[in-house]
């Protein structure tokens, strides 16, 4: 079950989950926490399973009804058990977007591809890391 944790973004438990999404980058973690605390339109939910938070998703629903994932993380011990997919599906059910969009790196691109996202390379960052845009269309578009 997804639980709204936006007001707990600076708690140790939620910060630890966010830390997985930002690869332990302290500056990125501080920026993420600040964003969840100050930006009204951004959402932050954690997935609870048997009383334990096993992952989280942060997203913004834009004016074109696209759910833009800002952060997605699963506790390492719970990866490859379907929790990431469950989080995305619950967010889809709750927000009812026309599409879901995520930008990620090579480490997570297979996750998105495996759950039905179309994946396109958007190039390399100056540090050489390749970035990908992942899109999942939730409704058939009329021509």
From TrEMBL:
Q: What are the GO MF terms of this UniProt record?
A: acyltransferase activity, transferring groups other than amino-acyl groups
Q: Which residues form the N-acetyltransferase domain?
A: 1-141
InterPro entries for the chain: Acyl_CoA_acyltransferase (IPR016181), GNAT_dom (IPR000182)
- Whether Transferase counts among this entry's keywords is yes
UniProt KW keywords? Transferase
Please tell me whether the keyword Electron transport is annotated for this protein: no
Question: Which named protein is this?
Answer: N-acetyltransferase
């Amino acid at each position: 079950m997804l639980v709204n944790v936006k007001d707990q973004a600076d708690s140790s438990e939620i910060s630890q989950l966010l830390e997985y999404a930002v690869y332990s980058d302290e500056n990125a973690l501080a920026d993420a926490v600040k964003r969840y605390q100050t930006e009204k339109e951004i959402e932050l939910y954690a997935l609870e399973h048997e009383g334990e938070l096993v992952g989280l998703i942060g997203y913004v629903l834009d004016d074109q009804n696209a759910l833009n994932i800002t952060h997605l993380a699963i506790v390492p011990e719970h990866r490859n058990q379907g929790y990431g997919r469950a989080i995305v599906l619950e967010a889809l059910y709750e927000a009812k977007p026309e599409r879901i969009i995520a930008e990620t790196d090579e480490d997570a691109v297979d996750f998105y591809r495996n759950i039905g996202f179309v994946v396109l390379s958007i190039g390399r960052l100056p540090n050489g890391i390749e970035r990908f845009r992942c899109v999942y269309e939730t409704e058939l578009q009329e021509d």
